[in-house]
């Protein structure tokens, strides 16, 4: 019986700890918000990086395999999507 009480107490402590950590993270997110210029610069950076990656995946080395080119193109598309997320977040 004492082990059941101990395990329930540990479970309660874990739940309280998780709630406290979650609340702390949410408070930090509320405190920190990017200004518009920071978002625009971050968005432009990711869009430029994505465009650069897509362009260079097809333009410069025709000897690259098709799979490698597609992989680079998907990475570029990912960077562009991160830019949209950065802008709209």
Task: Give an account of the 3D structure.
- Residues 1-25 are annotated as: Disordered.
- The chain crosses the membrane at residues 36-55, 67-88.
- The protein is an all-alpha fold.
- Helices cover 85% and strands 0% of the residues.
- The chain has 2 domains: 1-32; 34-89.
Task: Give the gist of this structure.
The protein is mainly alpha-helical and 89 residues long.
Output the helix-strand order. HHH
Report the sheet-strand fraction.
under 5%
- Give average pLDDT, whole number: 80
Number of helices: 3
For the secondary structure, the number of strands is 0
Total tally of structural domains: 2
Q: Give the N-to-C terminal Cα separation.
A: 50 Å
Structural class: mainly alpha
Q: Sheet bearing the most strands, described?
A: none
Approximate helicity band: over 70%
Shape: elongated
Gyration radius, to the nearest Å?
Answer: 23 Å
Q: Uncertain spans, ≥5 residues at pLDDT below 50?
A: none
Region (Disordered): 1-25
Organism: Glomus cerebriforme
InterPro entries: DMAC1-like_dom
Domain Distal membrane-arm assembly complex protein 1-like: 34-72
């Amino acid at each position: 019986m004492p082990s059941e009480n101990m395990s329930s107490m540990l479970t309660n402590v874990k739940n309280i700890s998780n709630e406290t950590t979650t609340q702390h993270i949410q408070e930090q997110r509320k405190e920190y918000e990017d200004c518009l210029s920071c978002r625009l610069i971050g968005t432009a950076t990711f869009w430029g990086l994505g465009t650069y990656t897509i362009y260079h995946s097809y333009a410069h080395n025709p000897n690259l395999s098709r799979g490698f080119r597609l992989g680079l193109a998907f990475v570029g598309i990912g960077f562009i999507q991160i830019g949209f997320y950065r802008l709209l977040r």
